[in-house]
Amino acid sequence: MADMKNSPIETAVIEFYREEIRQRYQLERLREVREFDVIPDEMLDALRDFFLERLYPPMEMRLRLDDAFEDLSKLLRSPGRLRPLVGAAITSMLRLSVHLPAIITTGIASLDALHETRQLERELMAVAETLRPEMEALQECKRSTKKYRDTMLKLIVGVPEATVYGLIDNVVRLFGALSDVKMLSGMLTLMEKCLKVMETKVEVYTDKDRESMALGLEVLRGGHDLFAQLKPRQFPKLLKGIETVELAWYKRVRAPLEKD
């Protein structure tokens, strides 16, 4: 919602959803999920940190990342802008050149999935627009009050159920893309080389182009580092565990409605 960009209501929605993520990915809660039995504590802590620092960071960084994801997605789909970067970078990564199409495909899939993880918040903002008077009045409440939480949960329940399930699938799909460690590693190498080329071609690529590449690289590196510490046989367990956590959270949110 463009007219609500950076508004107190948008900030409240984003911070509330971020806190919900923090709570449902607490280690003691994750240890109740059977699929996570094979995942070490430090990896579950790293998973929560990835959500909070890379996917759903505080507001200021969130806006920068959203712009970066959009810019990078356009760049990867623009042969005219991508070709000079790849042409200069590929000479120093010849061993990966045969995999270049798959590497770029993995990059696009990862960035698209990153962008789509934000869709639930966009849906929440659409519901908030329909409840604007109630949302504006809510700004006077302390965030620890029951009224505040009940109103914010009303936003989640206001999003169509099928939409929420689809968005949970998108989150799982993101981690599925990040779990392709070999191709993601190649993508990181390519992005690092491209960033160096950008830094030498200041007449072609803007400061914003370079910032977007650097931020995208940082997020994807975080995903790579997460999966690089796991054994391949643990990947399906992690993905299934994330799905279980998200579905259980949504079921808890809807429970009061289903009792009525």
Which features characterize this protein?
single chain, 260 residues, mainly alpha, 0% strand
Biggest β-sheet strands, sense, barrel = none
Shape: globular
Residue stretches low in confidence (pLDDT < 50, at least 5 long) are: none
Helix content: over 70%
Secondary-structure element sequence? HHHHHHHHHHHHH
**Number of folding domains?**
1
The computed structural class is mainly alpha
Strand content: under 5%
Would you count the extended β strands for me? 0
Which radius of gyration do the C-alpha atoms yield? 20 Å
- Tally of individual helices: 13
Report, as a whole number of angstroms, the end-to-end distance: 31 Å
Mean pLDDT: 86
Provide a brief overview of the structure.
The chain has helices spanning 8-24, 27-30, 41-55, 59-76, 79-89, 100-116, 119-130, 132-138, 146-158, 161-178, 181-200, 207-228, 235-259.
Describe the structure.
This protein is mainly alpha-helical. The chain has one domain. Helices cover 77% and strands 0% of the residues. It contains 13 helices and no strands. It has helices at residues 8-24, 27-30, 41-55, 59-76, 79-89, 100-116, 119-130, 132-138, 146-158, 161-178, 181-200, 207-228, 235-259. α1 (8-24) crosses α7 and α4 crosses α12 (207-228). The longest helix has 25 residues, at 235-259. The relative contact order is 0.15. The mean pLDDT is 86.
